[in-house]
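Trying the structure run again after the queue cleared.
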Amino acid sequence: MPKPKTQARRVQVQFHLAQRNYKRIIKRMRATLLDEPLEPAENAHKVESTPILKRIAHKVRAWAFNAITTLLEIPYKHEARVACLEFVMSMLFAFCALLCVVAVLAICFFLFGKAVPTIMEVGVWDFLLGDRWMPTSEVFGIFPMIIGSLLVSVLSVVFGALIGVLSAIYLAYFCKKSVLKILTPCVELLAGIPSIVYGFFGLIVLVEFVDFFADNGGKGLLTASILLAIMILPTIILISKTSIEAVPKSYYEGAIALGASKERAVFFVVIKAARSGILASIVLGMGRAIGEAMAVIIVAGNQPLIPESITDGVRTLTTNIVMELGYAEGLHRDVLIACGVVLFAFILLLNLCFRAIAKRL
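Done. Tokens:
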């Protein structure tokens, strides 16, 4: 099988040969139909000696012939325009991809360039595994914030993934069209609500609800997890629904034809075929849960301690950065940037783990 570059070069050579042969044919047709010799000097002498009517007829035939040749040249001009457009668009796409890579490298260069010397100054183990956060005494231990971020994210994904995937299955296979026209815009609207509005909802509704059962003020790990689960629902529902609908209908119809019930065909055939897209939706939802700050800062309690129960207050890495970056200076500010690097590395490791799981499925 020829290589793509060799095949493209062969097609290009054939195109140029065809275009050159086309020009030769047009030249001979002009000489035959218009009584023109192949040499333009002889043709000029002949036109001067002809009568006026013949010259007019000759011009009309020449105009008609030029119109026909112009129409015949359109495919070649179109091929040239298409080739030029393809080249320009390929360069544009390459520039956009390169811009994304440059942006990621710039972020990594800035964060790691600021954070690595700071972590070395504070001490790697004191910084990552220290359980006390006292900036006024220059004691910077972020282990409680790491645990808080991990617990809040995992619990929110546990709550949100189950509800989100089941909702996507309902919208894709079990929902009536009349109801679907109402539910889909509602889910999309849920994705557009600002984070601070979610925070107000959690403060007014969820905090009171949890406080009614736990009697601890309502702010804590459980409240933050429920609120984040609500926030990541649109991401999981919409992406999972798209992945489920992308599975060929023949999978579902084949399972039904073999005697499976509708529920069994959906859960054991369609969902299995769409598992990579569903897993991607969960990864994106967890990424948003880890990076959320404004809603969590209102309902989490913001205590830099390792929680002993599900209702205790917690502080995540994002809320820690948002709360103290406004007045931080010197080493304190550099440590907060280092917290951002830890969060970045945490999300990167999480994505790598999910990617490894997706390959095994």
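The mean pLDDT is 79. Worth checking whether this holds up in the mutant runs.
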